[in-house]
Amino acid sequence: MRITFKLFAQLADHLPPQVRPGNEMALDVAPAQTIAQIIEPFHLPPALVHLVLVNGKYIAPEARASTTLQEGDALAIWPPIAGG
């Protein structure tokens, strides 16, 4: 099945170079793959996987190893954001 995978801020560097300007890509995943399994091949630093959303809904860290997606879902990940 196909989902939309989005990485923001410095996490976008982990996407293939040709999709980095738009910070998202279509991604084929198995129906039983969890969020943790989907992001594992991208080698995202765990400390930077802060805000994880599926279709705009927050997924808590403890649920990422058991949450699966549906066809057409959007998985978006942000690092911690600081500012002032």
What does the model show?
Helix content is 6%, strand content 26%. With 84 residues, the chain is mainly beta. It has one domain: Beta-grasp domain (Ubiquitin-like (UB roll)), CATH 3.10.20. The chain has a 5-stranded mixed beta sheet, with no helix packed on it. It has one helix at residues 35-39, and strands spanning 2-7, 24-28, 51-54, 57-58, 74-78. The model has no long low-confidence stretch (mean pLDDT 94).
How is the secondary structure organized here?
Blueprint: E1 2-7, E2 24-28, H1 35-39, E3 51-54, E4 57-58, E5 74-78
Parallel strand pairs: 1-5
Antiparallel strand pairs: 1-2, 3-4, 3-5
Q: How far apart lie the N and C ends?
A: 41 Å
Shape: globular
Return the string of H and E elements: EEHEEE
Largest beta-sheet characterization: 5 strands, mixed
CATH level-two architecture? Roll
Q: What's the name of the CATH homologous superfamily? A: Beta-grasp domain
Number of helices: 1
Quickly count the domains: 1
What would the CATH topology be? Ubiquitin-like (UB roll)
**pLDDT < 50 stretches:** none
Structural class: mainly beta
